[in-house]
Amino acid sequence: MLLEVNEIEVHYGKIAALKNISLQVDSGEIVALIGANGAGKTTTLKTISGLRPLTSGRISFDGKDISRMPGHRRVVVGIGQAPEGRGIFPGMTVAENLLMGSYARKRRNGNRDEELAEVYELFPRLAERKSQAGGTMSGGEQQMLAIGRALMAKPKVLLLDEPSMGLAPMLVNQIFSIISEINRRGTTVLLVEQNAAQALQLADRAYVLETGRVVKSAPAHDLLTDPEVQAAYLGGDLDTEVRADDNAGT
Questions:
Q1: SS in 3 state form for the chain?
Q2: pLDDT in tens, 100-139
Q3: Cβ neighbours of residue 119 under 8 Å, at least 6 residues apart?
Q4: SS3 annotation, 60-87
Q5: For the segment 51-94, what is each residue's pLDDT rounded down to a tens digit?
Q6: Which residues contact 130 (CB under 8 A, 6 or more apart)?
Q7: Positive/negative CA dihedral, 11, 12, 16, 17
Q8: Residues 192-245: tens digit of each pLDDT
């Protein structure tokens, strides 16, 4: 098991944001976290990456307890994150933003030119605009830059927080295709996504969060056909669509 979150609690002042949350991510998986706004999805990712302190519980990564490890050290051991809202450096060029992603690895061996080339292969648009200031690019391009910057840290697990937020449908499809390719190339993915239907179609397994608790966990395809999940997060009955996808693959 690559990542294990065991009964963690997190507070904002006196308010409990996460309440005994447990989840697991195996190497090579795409695991999705779905739920309404305020359910605790982003807080869960921030806690795993070390940006929010635990009140109680334990987080293990690659066989080691990282519960009290500082966030910058978690990047070094293999946890990368593309945050909600992208968080790029708007005044820096695309190339400079990407190099910032490898900053924590500055004492490691590795050819940054090769790593940049890998990101540019995955995101040709970034290669075209490597000298352009990040803040002048479109929302979709900035999302590509945020993911590319996270990949420059060579993560074992990539935490993605709302990668499709604010994007046009065509760009959403492109971003999800890229996430699938990142996973195919060997990076484990933990995905928070408001577009629950698309997230579940992409993921291997998923957890449903409500008010800081995990209320369901199952293979993603099972949740796609779960009536309660359909009613709450998928906008109605998707049985016909899911059956059509299944038939297309047979």
A1: CCEEEEEEEEEECCEEEEEEEEEEECCCCEEEEECCCCCCHHHHHHHHHCCCCCCEEEEEECCEECCCCCHHHHHHHCEEEECCCCCCCCCCEHHHHHHHHCHHHCCCCCCHHHHHHHHHHHCHHHHHCCCCEHHHCCHHHHHHHHHHHHHCCCCCEEEEECCCCCCCHHHHHHHHHHHHHHHHCCCEEEEECCCHHHHHHHCCEEEEEECCEEEEEEEHHHHHCCHHHHHHHCCCCCHHHHHHHHHHCC
A2: 988 776 655 457 888 899 999 999 999 999 999 999 999 9
A3: 98, 126, 148, 151, 152
A4: EECCEECCCCCHHHHHHHCEEEECCCCC
A5: 999 999 999 999 999 999 999 999 999 999 998 888 899 999 99
A6: 93, 94, 95, 120
A7: negative
A8: 998 999 999 999 999 999 999 999 999 999 999 999 999 999 875 444 333 334
Sign of the CA dihedral with 240 first, then 242, 248, and 250 last? negative
- The one-letter code for the residue type at 138 is S
Instruction: Tell me the C-alpha distance between 212 and 9, whole Å.
Output: 9
Residues present in the chain in total:
250
